[in-house]
From TrEMBL:
Residues 342-436 form the MULE transposase domain. This is MULE transposase domain-containing protein. Residues 190-252 form the Transposase MuDR plant domain. Transmembrane segments: none annotated. Pfam families: DBD_Tnp_Mut, MULE. Residues 138-158 are annotated as: Disordered.
Protein backbone atom coordinates (compact mmCIF):
# COMPACT_ATOMS: atom_id res chain seq x y z
CA UNK A 1 0.00 0.00 0.00
CA UNK A 2 1.36 3.43 -1.01
CA UNK A 3 2.48 5.77 1.74
CA UNK A 4 2.44 9.57 1.70
CA UNK A 5 4.76 11.75 3.78
CA UNK A 6 3.91 15.34 4.69
CA UNK A 7 4.62 18.04 7.27
CA UNK A 8 2.13 19.31 9.87
CA UNK A 9 2.49 22.91 11.01
CA UNK A 10 0.62 23.94 14.15
CA UNK A 11 0.59 26.41 17.00
CA UNK A 12 0.57 29.45 14.70
CA UNK A 13 -1.77 31.77 12.85
CA UNK A 14 -2.52 32.96 9.33
CA UNK A 15 -1.50 36.33 7.95
CA UNK A 16 -2.44 38.02 4.68
CA UNK A 17 0.22 40.33 3.27
CA UNK A 18 -0.46 41.85 -0.14
CA UNK A 19 -2.88 39.07 -1.05
CA UNK A 20 -0.37 36.36 -0.12
CA UNK A 21 -1.32 33.98 2.67
CA UNK A 22 1.36 32.98 5.16
CA UNK A 23 1.18 30.74 8.20
CA UNK A 24 3.40 31.83 11.08
CA UNK A 25 3.87 28.63 13.03
CA UNK A 26 5.66 27.60 16.17
CA UNK A 27 6.05 23.83 15.78
CA UNK A 28 6.11 21.18 13.08
CA UNK A 29 6.01 17.39 12.76
CA UNK A 30 6.32 14.88 9.93
CA UNK A 31 3.92 11.95 9.60
CA UNK A 32 3.51 9.04 7.18
CA UNK A 33 0.02 7.80 6.27
CA UNK A 34 -1.58 5.44 3.78
CA UNK A 35 -2.71 6.79 0.41
CA UNK A 36 -6.25 5.60 1.22
CA UNK A 37 -6.50 7.25 4.65
CA UNK A 38 -10.06 8.56 5.32
CA UNK A 39 -10.86 11.90 6.91
CA UNK A 40 -11.69 10.46 10.35
CA UNK A 41 -8.41 8.57 10.60
CA UNK A 42 -6.36 11.60 9.53
CA UNK A 43 -8.13 13.74 12.12
CA UNK A 44 -7.37 11.22 14.88
CA UNK A 45 -3.71 10.87 13.83
CA UNK A 46 -3.12 14.60 13.70
CA UNK A 47 -4.97 15.18 16.99
CA UNK A 48 -2.78 12.67 18.80
CA UNK A 49 0.42 14.14 17.39
CA UNK A 50 -0.36 17.68 18.48
CA UNK A 51 -2.05 16.54 21.72
CA UNK A 52 -5.45 17.99 20.85
CA UNK A 53 -8.77 16.46 21.91
CA UNK A 54 -11.36 16.38 19.08
CA UNK A 55 -14.17 16.05 21.65
CA UNK A 56 -13.14 19.30 23.34
CA UNK A 57 -12.32 21.46 20.34
CA UNK A 58 -13.41 21.97 16.76
CA UNK A 59 -10.34 21.27 14.66
CA UNK A 60 -9.54 22.87 11.31
CA UNK A 61 -7.01 21.42 8.89
CA UNK A 62 -6.03 23.47 5.83
CA UNK A 63 -3.52 23.29 2.99
CA UNK A 64 -2.37 25.58 0.18
CA UNK A 65 -3.07 24.23 -3.30
CA UNK A 66 -0.19 24.57 -5.75
CA UNK A 67 -1.49 26.96 -8.40
CA UNK A 68 -0.14 29.91 -10.43
CA UNK A 69 -3.00 31.94 -8.99
CA UNK A 70 -3.05 33.13 -5.38
CA UNK A 71 -5.75 31.11 -3.64
CA UNK A 72 -6.98 31.08 -0.08
CA UNK A 73 -6.06 28.00 1.96
CA UNK A 74 -8.37 25.04 1.34
CA UNK A 75 -10.03 23.49 4.38
CA UNK A 76 -10.05 19.70 4.76
CA UNK A 77 -13.65 18.73 5.57
CA UNK A 78 -14.20 15.22 4.23
CA UNK A 79 -12.68 12.20 2.47
CA UNK A 80 -12.58 13.97 -0.90
CA UNK A 81 -10.52 16.82 0.53
CA UNK A 82 -8.13 14.33 2.12
CA UNK A 83 -7.61 12.58 -1.21
CA UNK A 84 -6.87 15.91 -2.93
CA UNK A 85 -4.33 16.78 -0.24
CA UNK A 86 -2.65 13.35 -0.37
CA UNK A 87 -2.59 13.50 -4.17
CA UNK A 88 -0.74 16.80 -3.98
CA UNK A 89 1.85 15.27 -1.66
CA UNK A 90 2.30 12.15 -3.79
CA UNK A 91 4.32 14.23 -6.27
CA UNK A 92 7.58 15.67 -4.94
CA UNK A 93 7.13 18.76 -7.10
CA UNK A 94 3.73 19.69 -5.64
CA UNK A 95 4.17 18.84 -1.99
CA UNK A 96 2.35 21.06 0.48
CA UNK A 97 2.05 21.16 4.26
CA UNK A 98 -1.01 20.58 6.42
CA UNK A 99 -1.86 23.53 8.64
CA UNK A 100 -3.58 22.69 11.88
CA UNK A 101 -5.54 24.82 14.37
CA UNK A 102 -8.05 24.46 17.20
CA UNK A 103 -10.51 27.21 16.33
CA UNK A 104 -13.04 26.45 19.06
CA UNK A 105 -11.07 25.31 22.07
CA UNK A 106 -13.07 24.95 25.25
CA UNK A 107 -11.99 27.02 28.19
CA UNK A 108 -10.85 25.15 31.30
CA UNK A 109 -12.32 27.56 33.76
CA UNK A 110 -11.67 31.08 32.55
CA UNK A 111 -14.59 32.10 30.41
CA UNK A 112 -16.87 29.45 28.94
CA UNK A 113 -19.87 28.56 31.05
CA UNK A 114 -23.58 28.06 30.79
CA UNK A 115 -24.03 31.78 30.35
CA UNK A 116 -22.83 31.56 26.75
CA UNK A 117 -23.24 27.89 25.87
CA UNK A 118 -26.56 28.54 24.12
CA UNK A 119 -24.75 30.71 21.57
CA UNK A 120 -22.74 27.83 20.21
CA UNK A 121 -25.77 25.54 20.32
CA UNK A 122 -27.92 27.90 18.30
CA UNK A 123 -25.48 28.46 15.43
CA UNK A 124 -22.97 25.68 14.74
CA UNK A 125 -20.96 27.76 12.27
CA UNK A 126 -20.84 31.00 14.24
CA UNK A 127 -17.84 30.04 16.33
CA UNK A 128 -17.06 33.73 16.75
CA UNK A 129 -20.04 34.04 19.11
CA UNK A 130 -18.18 32.20 21.84
CA UNK A 131 -14.81 32.66 23.48
CA UNK A 132 -12.58 31.45 20.65
CA UNK A 133 -9.49 32.50 18.80
CA UNK A 134 -9.48 32.88 15.03
CA UNK A 135 -6.96 31.66 12.48
CA UNK A 136 -7.35 34.87 10.51
CA UNK A 137 -8.28 33.95 6.93
CA UNK A 138 -11.48 31.93 7.03
CA UNK A 139 -13.76 32.64 4.09
CA UNK A 140 -15.76 29.43 3.88
CA UNK A 141 -17.58 30.41 0.67
CA UNK A 142 -14.36 31.23 -1.13
CA UNK A 143 -12.75 28.06 0.15
CA UNK A 144 -15.57 25.82 -1.04
CA UNK A 145 -15.89 27.47 -4.46
CA UNK A 146 -12.17 27.20 -5.22
CA UNK A 147 -11.71 23.62 -4.06
CA UNK A 148 -10.39 21.50 -6.94
CA UNK A 149 -12.61 18.53 -6.11
CA UNK A 150 -15.10 17.56 -8.80
CA UNK A 151 -17.25 15.36 -6.61
CA UNK A 152 -20.21 16.74 -4.75
CA UNK A 153 -19.12 17.53 -1.23
CA UNK A 154 -21.36 18.29 1.74
CA UNK A 155 -21.75 21.94 2.64
CA UNK A 156 -20.17 23.42 5.71
CA UNK A 157 -23.44 22.59 7.47
CA UNK A 158 -22.30 18.99 7.32
CA UNK A 159 -20.14 19.95 10.22
CA UNK A 160 -18.83 18.78 13.47
CA UNK A 161 -22.03 19.70 15.26
CA UNK A 162 -22.31 22.56 17.66
CA UNK A 163 -22.64 20.21 20.56
CA UNK A 164 -18.95 19.35 20.40
CA UNK A 165 -17.48 19.34 23.87
CA UNK A 166 -20.80 20.20 25.52
CA UNK A 167 -20.03 18.27 28.68
CA UNK A 168 -16.73 20.05 29.18
CA UNK A 169 -18.50 23.38 28.89
CA UNK A 170 -21.21 22.31 31.26
CA UNK A 171 -18.66 21.18 33.84
CA UNK A 172 -17.28 24.70 34.28
CA UNK A 173 -18.49 25.90 37.68
CA UNK A 174 -18.81 29.62 37.12
CA UNK A 175 -20.74 32.24 35.23
CA UNK A 176 -24.12 33.83 35.77
CA UNK A 177 -27.16 31.59 35.91
CA UNK A 178 -28.55 30.47 32.56
CA UNK A 179 -31.86 28.65 32.71
CA UNK A 180 -32.52 25.34 31.04
CA UNK A 181 -35.24 27.07 29.05
CA UNK A 182 -32.82 29.57 27.49
CA UNK A 183 -30.52 26.72 26.46
CA UNK A 184 -33.09 24.42 24.88
CA UNK A 185 -34.81 27.28 23.04
CA UNK A 186 -31.61 28.04 21.13
CA UNK A 187 -30.58 24.52 20.14
CA UNK A 188 -30.20 24.14 16.37
CA UNK A 189 -32.29 21.48 14.65
CA UNK A 190 -30.53 18.25 13.64
CA UNK A 191 -29.94 17.69 9.92
CA UNK A 192 -29.00 14.65 7.87
CA UNK A 193 -25.22 14.65 7.50
CA UNK A 194 -24.50 16.29 10.85
CA UNK A 195 -21.32 14.94 12.40
CA UNK A 196 -20.92 14.49 16.16
CA UNK A 197 -17.67 13.70 18.00
CA UNK A 198 -19.27 10.81 19.90
CA UNK A 199 -22.51 8.93 20.37
CA UNK A 200 -23.05 10.56 23.75
CA UNK A 201 -22.79 14.04 22.21
CA UNK A 202 -25.56 13.17 19.75
CA UNK A 203 -27.76 11.81 22.53
CA UNK A 204 -27.37 14.97 24.61
CA UNK A 205 -28.22 17.12 21.59
CA UNK A 206 -31.44 15.15 21.03
CA UNK A 207 -32.19 15.40 24.75
CA UNK A 208 -32.14 19.19 24.60
CA UNK A 209 -34.19 19.20 21.40
CA UNK A 210 -36.84 16.98 22.98
CA UNK A 211 -37.11 19.24 26.03
CA UNK A 212 -37.37 22.37 23.91
CA UNK A 213 -39.94 20.87 21.51
CA UNK A 214 -41.91 19.08 24.26
CA UNK A 215 -41.62 15.49 23.10
CA UNK A 216 -39.98 12.36 24.46
CA UNK A 217 -38.00 9.65 22.71
CA UNK A 218 -36.61 6.22 23.38
CA UNK A 219 -33.48 4.45 22.21
CA UNK A 220 -34.52 1.53 20.03
CA UNK A 221 -31.01 0.27 19.31
CA UNK A 222 -27.62 1.30 20.58
CA UNK A 223 -24.39 -0.46 19.65
CA UNK A 224 -20.79 0.61 19.18
CA UNK A 225 -21.51 1.50 15.56
CA UNK A 226 -25.24 2.29 15.44
CA UNK A 227 -27.73 4.51 17.28
CA UNK A 228 -31.46 4.47 16.51
CA UNK A 229 -33.96 6.64 18.41
CA UNK A 230 -37.70 7.01 17.95
CA UNK A 231 -40.63 8.83 19.55
CA UNK A 232 -42.00 7.31 22.72
CA UNK A 233 -45.40 6.99 20.99
CA UNK A 234 -45.35 3.75 18.99
CA UNK A 235 -47.06 4.96 15.79
CA UNK A 236 -45.18 8.28 15.54
CA UNK A 237 -42.87 8.70 12.53
CA UNK A 238 -40.22 10.80 14.32
CA UNK A 239 -36.88 8.99 14.31
CA UNK A 240 -33.11 9.47 14.19
CA UNK A 241 -30.56 7.02 12.83
CA UNK A 242 -26.82 7.59 13.11
CA UNK A 243 -23.81 5.40 12.39
CA UNK A 244 -20.19 5.48 13.51
CA UNK A 245 -17.54 6.54 11.03
CA UNK A 246 -14.74 4.13 10.26
CA UNK A 247 -11.52 4.42 12.28
CA UNK A 248 -12.80 7.17 14.60
CA UNK A 249 -15.37 7.78 17.34
CA UNK A 250 -17.51 10.25 15.38
CA UNK A 251 -21.17 9.56 14.57
CA UNK A 252 -22.94 10.89 11.46
CA UNK A 253 -26.73 11.33 11.19
CA UNK A 254 -27.89 9.14 8.29
CA UNK A 255 -31.66 9.51 8.66
CA UNK A 256 -33.80 12.08 10.44
CA UNK A 257 -37.59 12.42 10.34
CA UNK A 258 -38.37 15.62 12.30
CA UNK A 259 -42.17 15.59 12.00
CA UNK A 260 -44.33 14.09 14.75
CA UNK A 261 -47.52 12.28 13.79
CA UNK A 262 -48.50 11.87 17.44
CA UNK A 263 -50.22 14.28 19.81
CA UNK A 264 -47.67 16.11 21.92
CA UNK A 265 -50.36 16.65 24.55
CA UNK A 266 -50.04 12.99 25.52
CA UNK A 267 -46.67 13.48 27.21
CA UNK A 268 -45.91 12.58 30.79
CA UNK A 269 -45.29 15.48 33.15
CA UNK A 270 -41.92 14.13 34.30
CA UNK A 271 -39.89 14.41 31.09
CA UNK A 272 -37.78 11.26 30.72
CA UNK A 273 -35.04 13.11 28.79
CA UNK A 274 -34.65 15.71 31.56
CA UNK A 275 -32.22 13.50 33.45
CA UNK A 276 -30.76 14.45 36.80
CA UNK A 277 -27.34 14.80 35.15
CA UNK A 278 -28.60 17.24 32.52
CA UNK A 279 -30.57 19.30 35.03
CA UNK A 280 -27.63 19.33 37.42
CA UNK A 281 -25.32 20.76 34.76
CA UNK A 282 -27.87 23.45 33.96
CA UNK A 283 -28.45 24.61 37.54
CA UNK A 284 -24.88 24.52 38.79
CA UNK A 285 -24.41 28.29 38.70
CA UNK A 286 -27.13 28.51 41.36
CA UNK A 287 -24.51 27.16 43.78
CA UNK A 288 -21.96 29.92 43.16
CA UNK A 289 -22.45 31.56 46.53
CA UNK A 290 -22.02 29.54 49.68
CA UNK A 291 -24.66 31.64 51.43
CA UNK A 292 -27.30 30.72 48.84
CA UNK A 293 -29.50 27.74 49.67
CA UNK A 294 -30.84 25.90 46.64
CA UNK A 295 -32.80 22.85 47.71
CA UNK A 296 -34.61 20.12 45.71
CA UNK A 297 -37.93 21.93 46.14
CA UNK A 298 -36.40 25.05 44.56
CA UNK A 299 -35.23 22.93 41.61
CA UNK A 300 -38.74 21.50 41.19
CA UNK A 301 -40.27 24.99 41.19
CA UNK A 302 -37.77 26.35 38.63
CA UNK A 303 -38.27 23.44 36.22
CA UNK A 304 -42.04 23.87 36.49
CA UNK A 305 -41.84 27.60 35.68
CA UNK A 306 -39.21 27.37 32.93
CA UNK A 307 -40.11 24.20 31.04
CA UNK A 308 -43.52 23.13 32.33
CA UNK A 309 -42.08 19.90 33.75
CA UNK A 310 -43.07 18.37 37.06
CA UNK A 311 -39.98 16.72 38.53
CA UNK A 312 -40.09 14.18 41.28
CA UNK A 313 -38.28 14.96 44.51
CA UNK A 314 -35.79 12.12 44.00
CA UNK A 315 -34.73 13.39 40.56
CA UNK A 316 -34.34 16.93 41.91
CA UNK A 317 -32.24 15.63 44.79
CA UNK A 318 -30.03 13.62 42.39
CA UNK A 319 -29.59 16.73 40.21
CA UNK A 320 -28.36 18.60 43.28
CA UNK A 321 -25.93 15.77 44.00
CA UNK A 322 -24.60 16.04 40.43
CA UNK A 323 -23.75 19.69 41.06
CA UNK A 324 -22.07 18.88 44.35
CA UNK A 325 -20.05 16.18 42.59
CA UNK A 326 -18.93 18.69 39.94
CA UNK A 327 -17.84 21.11 42.64
CA UNK A 328 -15.98 18.58 44.77
CA UNK A 329 -14.51 16.44 42.04
CA UNK A 330 -13.47 12.77 42.43
CA UNK A 331 -12.46 11.78 45.95
CA UNK A 332 -9.21 10.27 44.64
CA UNK A 333 -8.14 13.63 43.16
CA UNK A 334 -8.92 15.35 46.44
CA UNK A 335 -6.84 12.81 48.32
CA UNK A 336 -3.84 13.39 46.07
CA UNK A 337 -4.00 17.17 46.39
CA UNK A 338 -5.05 18.10 49.91
CA UNK A 339 -5.48 15.11 52.25
CA UNK A 340 -2.86 13.73 54.62
CA UNK A 341 -1.46 10.46 53.18
CA UNK A 342 -2.82 8.38 56.06
CA UNK A 343 -5.38 5.76 54.99
CA UNK A 344 -7.48 3.68 57.37
CA UNK A 345 -8.67 0.36 55.94
CA UNK A 346 -11.12 -2.13 57.37
CA UNK A 347 -13.73 -4.67 56.39
CA UNK A 348 -17.22 -5.42 57.63
CA UNK A 349 -19.77 -8.08 56.80
CA UNK A 350 -22.85 -7.36 54.70
CA UNK A 351 -26.36 -8.41 55.68
CA UNK A 352 -27.86 -8.32 52.19
CA UNK A 353 -29.13 -11.31 50.21
CA UNK A 354 -25.73 -12.25 48.80
CA UNK A 355 -23.84 -11.32 52.00
CA UNK A 356 -20.08 -10.95 51.50
CA UNK A 357 -17.68 -8.36 52.95
CA UNK A 358 -17.42 -4.61 52.39
CA UNK A 359 -13.83 -3.32 52.14
CA UNK A 360 -13.37 0.40 52.80
CA UNK A 361 -10.53 2.93 52.74
CA UNK A 362 -10.97 6.33 54.41
CA UNK A 363 -8.93 9.35 55.50
CA UNK A 364 -9.45 12.53 57.50
CA UNK A 365 -9.74 15.94 55.87
CA UNK A 366 -8.43 19.24 57.22
CA UNK A 367 -11.54 19.63 59.38
CA UNK A 368 -10.96 16.21 60.96
CA UNK A 369 -13.98 14.77 59.12
CA UNK A 370 -14.14 11.33 57.53
CA UNK A 371 -13.10 11.45 53.86
CA UNK A 372 -14.33 8.41 51.93
CA UNK A 373 -11.65 7.22 49.52
CA UNK A 374 -12.65 3.85 48.06
CA UNK A 375 -14.72 0.75 48.73
CA UNK A 376 -15.04 -2.75 47.34
CA UNK A 377 -17.03 -5.93 47.90
CA UNK A 378 -15.57 -9.41 48.26
CA UNK A 379 -16.50 -12.81 49.60
CA UNK A 380 -14.61 -12.59 52.92
CA UNK A 381 -11.54 -11.08 54.57
CA UNK A 382 -8.78 -13.30 53.22
CA UNK A 383 -5.40 -12.88 51.52
CA UNK A 384 -6.78 -12.85 47.97
CA UNK A 385 -9.59 -10.38 48.70
CA UNK A 386 -7.36 -7.85 50.44
CA UNK A 387 -4.68 -8.20 47.77
CA UNK A 388 -7.33 -7.46 45.10
CA UNK A 389 -8.59 -4.41 47.01
CA UNK A 390 -5.12 -2.91 47.51
CA UNK A 391 -4.22 -3.60 43.87
CA UNK A 392 -7.25 -1.58 42.74
CA UNK A 393 -6.40 1.17 45.23
CA UNK A 394 -2.82 1.27 43.95
CA UNK A 395 -4.13 1.73 40.42
CA UNK A 396 -5.86 4.93 41.59
CA UNK A 397 -3.33 6.60 43.87
CA UNK A 398 -0.06 4.96 42.81
CA UNK A 399 3.13 5.51 44.78
CA UNK A 400 3.02 8.37 47.28
CA UNK A 401 5.70 9.61 49.62
CA UNK A 402 5.10 9.11 53.35
CA UNK A 403 2.02 6.97 52.70
CA UNK A 404 0.76 5.19 55.83
CA UNK A 405 -1.94 2.53 56.21
CA UNK A 406 -3.73 1.98 59.52
CA UNK A 407 -5.79 -1.14 60.24
CA UNK A 408 -6.55 -3.74 62.87
CA UNK A 409 -4.27 -6.73 63.42
CA UNK A 410 -5.59 -8.61 60.38
CA UNK A 411 -2.63 -10.50 58.90
CA UNK A 412 -4.14 -10.46 55.39
CA UNK A 413 -4.03 -6.65 55.39
CA UNK A 414 -0.41 -6.63 56.50
CA UNK A 415 0.55 -9.07 53.73
CA UNK A 416 -1.33 -7.12 51.05
CA UNK A 417 0.21 -3.77 52.05
CA UNK A 418 3.71 -5.24 52.06
CA UNK A 419 3.13 -6.84 48.65
CA UNK A 420 1.39 -3.98 46.79
CA UNK A 421 2.58 -0.74 48.44
CA UNK A 422 6.27 -1.53 48.79
CA UNK A 423 7.35 1.92 50.01
CA UNK A 424 4.52 2.57 52.46
CA UNK A 425 4.26 2.02 56.20
CA UNK A 426 1.67 -0.08 57.99
CA UNK A 427 0.49 0.66 61.52
CA UNK A 428 -2.03 -0.82 63.93
CA UNK A 429 -5.11 1.14 64.96
CA UNK A 430 -4.82 2.32 68.56
CA UNK A 431 -8.47 1.55 69.30
CA UNK A 432 -8.36 -2.03 67.99
CA UNK A 433 -5.10 -2.79 69.76
CA UNK A 434 -6.45 -1.24 72.96
CA UNK A 435 -9.51 -3.48 72.83
CA UNK A 436 -7.24 -6.51 72.46
CA UNK A 437 -5.24 -5.42 75.50
CA UNK A 438 -8.39 -5.02 77.57
CA UNK A 439 -9.34 -8.60 76.74
CA UNK A 440 -5.90 -9.92 77.72
CA UNK A 441 -4.86 -7.60 80.57
CA UNK A 442 -7.49 -6.79 83.17
CA UNK A 443 -5.48 -4.19 85.11
CA UNK A 444 -6.77 -0.65 84.46
CA UNK A 445 -3.28 0.81 84.93
CA UNK A 446 -2.05 -1.09 81.89
CA UNK A 447 -4.79 0.41 79.75
CA UNK A 448 -3.96 3.95 80.87
CA UNK A 449 -0.24 3.48 80.19
CA UNK A 450 -0.97 2.07 76.72
CA UNK A 451 -3.13 5.00 75.64
CA UNK A 452 -0.65 7.55 76.98
CA UNK A 453 2.23 5.84 75.17
CA UNK A 454 0.27 5.61 71.92
CA UNK A 455 -0.21 9.39 71.97
CA UNK A 456 3.43 10.21 72.74
CA UNK A 457 5.14 11.99 69.82
CA UNK A 458 8.70 11.97 71.19
CA UNK A 459 10.95 9.13 72.36
CA UNK A 460 11.78 10.97 75.59
CA UNK A 461 8.10 11.36 76.41
CA UNK A 462 7.47 7.69 75.62
CA UNK A 463 10.30 6.51 77.91
CA UNK A 464 9.06 8.69 80.75
CA UNK A 465 5.60 7.11 80.58
CA UNK A 466 7.03 3.57 80.48
CA UNK A 467 9.03 4.18 83.67
Amino acid sequence: MDKVRFVILYGGEWSNSGGKFNYQYGMSKVILVSRETPYGSLLDIVSRLVEANPSESSIKMKFIFNSPEVLAPFEVLNDDDVQVFLCENSDVNTRTSLYFANVFELDNGNGVGLDNIHESLSSPNDFHNANVFSIGVDNDDETRDSRPSTSEVPSRRSRVASFQGIETKLSTIHGSYTSLQSIVNNVKEVEVGDLFPSKEALQIKIQLLSIGNHFQFKVKKSTKTLLVMSCIVEDCKWCVRATKLKDCESFRVRKYSPDHTCSLDALHFDHRQASSKLIGHCIKSKFERTSQSYRPNNIIDDMKKQCGMTLGYNKAWRAREVVMGLARGPSIEGFKSCIRPVVAVDGTFLKCKHQGTLFIATSLDGNNQVYSLAFGIGDSENDQSWHWFFTKLYGLIGEMSDLVFISDRNLSIAKAVACVFLNSLHGICMYHLGQNMKAKFKAVEVHDIFYKCSKAYRVVEFNQIMR
